[in-house]
Amino acid sequence: MPSALILGASRGIGLGLTRELIGRGWQVTATHRSEARDLAATGARLAVVDIADDESLAALATDLADDRFDHVLINAGIIGSRADTATNVNRDAMTALFWTNAIAPIRAARRLLPLVKDGGSIGFMTSILGSVGGRSSSWAELYSASKAALNSLTRGFAVQDVGQRPVAVLNLHPGWVKTDMGGPDADIDVATSVAGLANVIETTRPPGQRYLDYTGATIPW
Ligand SMILES: NC(=O)c1ccc[n+]([C@@H]2O[C@H](COP(=O)([O-])OP(=O)(O)OC[C@H]3O[C@@H](n4cnc5c(N)ncnc54)[C@H](OP(=O)(O)O)[C@@H]3O)[C@@H](O)[C@H]2O)c1
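Above: query sequence and NAP SMILES. Below: predicted holo structure tokens.
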């Protein structure tokens, strides 16, 4: 039975993907930092972590030290205030956004990489908005920049941390999804996004790093 660890699964895409993988016969360990009634109902093994908190990440890595996973996904992320731009954002809000979306995922990945089985993969839930080459507007500029920073950090992670290990690195775009973050006008529902993401996770094998959307299409860096 394949196994996955998903960080940030209390709601939205993380919750949906937990359900989807369990439905496909995976054994899933899923983390939350707040209320987790819906997550508990999926049958996942639960763990607690706030990815922005180093002590919390260290405790998770210690608790799971004897576990090995076919896939580890760092899904947690925030959008910040939609009204914030580089012109008006304050330092605290900027720090929270970049810490949660770029710095914390890399710190988490460095702690959790030893738990990924050879032949498996480690995933980062980034966004097509983090594509620098594909960018043609200033829409959501700070959130987009935080995901571009995440993409940049993962490039170094793939080369230096993963190195020659047979572990694939997946930078995933879930589509524009109807969640608390994506809003009701988004393109696709959670079920469509997570079915596609699960296909990508199940079929992408090492070696190498890919930047893929939920349909498996490659996104330019
Ligand atoms: N929805 C979209 O259209 C879309 C598009 C592109 C990329 N994404 C990315 O996909 C991921 C999931 O998005 P979503 O739409 O499902 O968002 P969401 O509905 O807002 O859910 C975000 C999840 O991240 C968790 N989280 C946030 N900060 C955390 C922290 N410090 N520690 C632990 N967990 C934390 C939340 O936990 P709590 O419940 O405790 O807050 C929640 O489970 C994010 O990385 C997002 O940037 C989403």
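The pocket of NAP is lined by residues 8-14, 33-34, 49-52, 75-78, 100, 125, 127, 173-174, 176-177, 179-182, 186 (CB under 6 Å).
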